[in-house]
Amino acid sequence: MICACPVVSASDRISFEFPLEIGDSIYFEDGYYRVTLVETEWQFGWAVLNISCDGCFYEPREVYGRENETIYYPTKDSSVISITNTRDVSRDSARVTISFPEHWSYKLVSAEEGTKPVTVPKLVITKSVDKTTIKPGDIVRVTVRVENVGNGSASDIAIIESPSAALVPFGGGLKLKIKDPLPAGESDDDAYSVESVRSGTFEIPETVVTYYSESKEKYTAESDAISITVLAPEVKVSNLETTIQFDRTEVLKGEEITTTTTIKNTGDAPAKSITLINKIPAGLELVSGEVENTYFEIKPGEMHELRALIRANEAGNYTFNPRTVYSDGETTIKSQTIVVTKKVVNYKKYLYLAPIGLIIALLIWFVIKRHKEYSF
After folding, report:
1. Which of 57, 153, 319, 368 is most buried when burial is the number of CB atoms within 10 A of its CB?
2. Which string of DSSP letters, residue by residue, matches 110-172?
3. What is the full DSSP assignment across 16-71?
4. Is pLDDT above 60 for 5?
5. 122 neighbors 55 (Cβ within 8 angstroms)
6. Could you tell me the pLDDT band of residue 371, with boundaries at 50, 70 and 90?
7. Is there a common fold for 123-230 and 240-341?
8. What does the pLDDT read at residue 352?
């Protein structure tokens, strides 16, 4: 009677001791991996074992099993199967302890049974998206590819997609369908779309696929999850810049000044409900034009200009403080200082006329006097 006896277990691996005769094999995962007793060198206590993997990248290896020695397959750093001990080696048998993943299926197959071909499907699931960084409202196309890398056909294939809270299925939803049955060495894919509904970083969950072998063994495979970044909505705002300029800033009382006030939207959104408040300081007077106004809307890059003629009525220093109030805020600026002075008469430059005036007055007096004398 052939039996496998448990030796030791770990959190994710288990070890069993198998009694083997020459030609017997241990089939893991329905024969996807195999360990076969090929022959013995009983004089030395050695057993010759063949380790192989159907449909994978690992080359078969023929190894010598010895007591209290460990053999790793395919390598020590990435061991899938380990032969940890070989004992009781005779001319035609040996007891072999093998360590393997705890969730694997396994069975001991005699030399006669081993001549029958064993077919095992093995599906590899690959999930991809057309973009991983998007904006709210963007559509992401999700593609699921299923490849059979085993040596048997897979049938009754069910593809299970889990939804994401922030990526809502678009159109046909999460239903996927591929070729069924899927023969060994073939692949197929299907796709669906999701729409982003809010910003943040989210995962499109892994795809889970269940399928059956030709011998009606059930298997499960899954893809990796995919991270999607949904950028925050771009906020566009207006930005009004107000300037005021004068044709001159030093004038005499009674003279006039030309002012130019401009409002320009340097933002990336229209400004609405705009009011320009620009009080004229006492001592100055509006002659024509305007320094205040209201606008319904100023588009990005658009500029409005106001011109006015201001008279300086009183001497002094004056500044304007235009205030612009609009839908996205308000601004206040301070203008240059206008200096208004009184007109001053320089009497010194007329002093040279005093002697001339005195002479003219004396001449007039003399003429009048002589005229009186001769009139008698």
Report:
1. 153
2. -TTGGGS------EEEEEEES-SEE-TT-EEEEEEEEEE-SSS-BEEEEEE---BTTEEEESS
3. EEEEEETT-EEEETTTTEEEEEEEEETTTTEEEEEEEETTSSPPPEEEEE-TT--E
4. no
5. yes
6. low
7. yes
8. 66
- What the block records as the tokens of 151 is 């040596």
| C-beta of residue 55 within 8 angstroms of C-beta of residue 119 | no
- Give me 186's structure tokens: 């073939």
- For the cut 80, the answer to whether the pLDDT of residue 177 exceeds it is yes
Q: Checking DSSP bridges between strand 13-21 and strand 5-9, what pairing results, if any? A: antiparallel
Would you state the pLDDT for residue 356?
Answer: 78
pLDDT-based confidence at residue 215 (cuts at 50, 70, 90): confident
Secondary structure (DSSP) of 281-325:
PTTEEEEEE-S-EEEEEE-TT-EEEEEEEEEE-S-EEE----EEE
Cross-strand pairs, 67:
none
Copy the structure tokens of residue 311. Answer: 């008279």
Instruction: Provide the b/e sequence for 145-174 (b: ≥16 CB within 10 Å).
Output: bbbbbbbbbbeebebebeebebbebeeeee
Domain ranges of the chain: 5-115, 123-230, 240-341
Give me the pLDDT at residue 308, please. Answer: 95
Q: Is the peptide bond before 163 cis (omega within 30 degrees of 0)?
A: no
Mean per-residue pLDDT over the chain, rounded: 88
pLDDT of residue 18: 94
pLDDT of residue 1: 37
Cβ contact 160:125 at 8 Å: no
Topology adopted by domain 240-341: Immunoglobulin-like (2.60.40)
Query: Please, what CATH class does the domain formed by 123-230 belong to?
Result: mainly beta
For residue 249, pLDDT beyond 70:
yes
Lowest mean pLDDT among 9-13, 248-252, 297-301: 9-13
What fold, for 5-115? Tick-borne Encephalitis virus Glycoprotein; domain 1 (2.60.98)
Task: Give me the DSSP letters along 161-230.
Answer: ---BTTEEEESSTT-----SSB-TT-EEEEEEEEEE-S-EEEEEPPPEEEEE-TT--EEEEE---EEEEE
CA distances from 358 to 51, 349, 355, 365 (A): 140, 17, 5, 11
